[in-house]
Specification:
- This is YeeE/YedE family protein.
- Belongs to the TsuA/YedE (TC 9.B.102) family.
- It comes from Vibrio paucivorans.
- The structure is a single chain.
- By secondary structure, the chain is mainly alpha-helical.
- It is 74% helix and 0% strand.
- The protein has six helices and no strands.
């Protein structure tokens, strides 16, 4: 697996910021992925096309970068369909309970100086760090 360089991460962060700002300026919408997907699953009149293009852009951007840069996906442990389904349901429940996902709060909410998003992002990061610690050092 190729090690990420700080410049690549910086460039990716800049692209995320630009895309979030453009979406907010052009459409008045927040680039939170759970909200975008929710709008695809339960579309409102005139609110479907941009969401579909957003998701297609994310997927095609990832595929193109893998093809152009030759990046190999890291090896992962195989999980059962039951575990993956449970994990997906828990993530969905968490985004509903937290009124948004990490991208919505972390990228867009903090950029708007939302106190709720700043607290939510701090909680996300603390739980992620605790989860990694438990996974690597306890289990």
């Amino acid at each position: 697996m190729m090690q990420a360089l700080p410049w690549e991460s910086l460039f990716g962060g800049i692209l995320l910021g630009i895309s979030a700002v453009l979406l907010l300026i052009v459409n008045g919408k927040v680039a939170g992925i759970s909200g975008v997907i929710n709008g695809l699953l339960a579309p409102k009149s005139g609110d479907y096309a941009w969401r579909l293009l957003f998701v297609l852009g994310m997927v095609s951007g990832g595929v193109l970068s893998v093809m152009m840069l030759g990046i190999e996906a890291p090896s992962t442990q195989s999980s059962s369909l039951l575990v993956l389904s449970l994990a997906g349901l828990l993530v969905g429940f968490g985004t509903r309970m937290g009124n948004g996902c990490t991208s919505g709060h972390g990228i867009c909410g903090i950029g708007r100086l939302s106190k709720r998003s700043i607290v939510a992002t701090c909680v996300f990061m603390a739980v992620a760090a605790l989860t990694v610690f438990i996974r690597l050092h306890v289990l």
